[in-house]
Write a structure and sequence with these properties.
The protein is α+β, with helices and mostly antiparallel strands and 428 residues long. Helices cover 41% and strands 20% of the residues. The longest helix is centred in the N-terminal third of the chain and has 37 residues, at 27-63.
Amino acid sequence: MLDRKLVREQPEFVRAQAARKGVSAPVDEFLRVDGEWRATKKELDDLRAEAKRVADSIGALRAAGKTEEFEAARAKTAEMKGQQKVLEEKERWLEEQLREVELQFPNLPHASAPDGKDETENPVVRTWGEKRAEPSRQHQEIAADLRLFDAELGAKVSGSRFVVYTGAGAKLLRALANFMADLQVRQNGYYEVSPPALVLGQSLEGTGNLPKFADDLYKAEGEDLWLIPTAEVPVTNLMRDTILDGARLPVKLAAYTPCFRREAGAAGKDTRGILRMHQFDKVELVKFVTPETSYDELEALVTDAEDVLQALGLHYRVIELCTGDMGDKAAKIYDLEVWAPGEGRYLEVSSCGNFEAFQARRTNIRFRREAGAPPEFVHVLNGSGLAVPRLMVALLETYWRDGHVEVPAALVPYMGGDRIDAPASHPF
């Protein structure tokens, strides 16, 4: 959510910044409901003050023997209690209406975010490493030869866009996840958590996934429980309704979880292999920081995610999302795209964003700079560190050799060997 004061005092600015993202903010509706809510609140405050004044006079009137005035004051107090109840109900209803309008606002892009209409206008910030010089094969062909995953088995038990990882493929999945989590904890100072994969609707609302993106989520029938689209949701909400100690910021959390997405708007896109699935694994990084450090922390977050790709020796590029491609929640975003030589293209494996106070206002996450200082909203950042399936695609296609896949040195301790070969036998 945005700062209410900002929308009230600078509505045209808010309108213009939302337009940079190509969206229309409900400024007029906000001002209408907010005006009515504030008028009702003032009326209620005035009534409470008058009710207190009359109530305070009752004892003096009784002591003075002013029976008529005493009875009139009692009657007025009773009348005002009824009026107060009506106004309190109206204020609560208007507050709910105001929040519904607020939840429709996008976050405003940072001044440094490049303007653009869509992904074709995202500038490349930097590249690292070299593309594989010799031709490679596509990952699903490699996986078929080495029995790494099976889409038919996945469809058999769960339907389309699910796979079963088998043999060395299942081991590689675990190895990548453990390697990435260990790197972020041991090298980059994150504190590891393992949150639930089912969350309340309130948690999804807090991170901005609800109400707008409900069609991309899986919901448990008859319950207010939703499968997480990313660990960003439960990890951010671990701090909901919390006032953090400013001296201990930044707080840096890392979580490895499965993620679930319906991909409702992605019919026909990347249906081969494991490029786009309904269930996938990911290591997520979440930071809670002070406002004045948040953009330095964003650069550091990107570097933390890059560490994984560099350790695995994979060529990648960092792009900055233009305003038309960054979505509703972030103020500034960088994507990491790894080169997949068999696909002949870059694949997004991480999106690192600064949400400023947008999620903190929705989840009421604040901090105090010192004891007794007024609480302020933190800035929340998150990024993938990284998404496992597409990372696996790039690794298989980069390190494919004739008949086997070489294992990068950093991954050898997790795989227990330096190559992946076809199994001598398998149960499927």
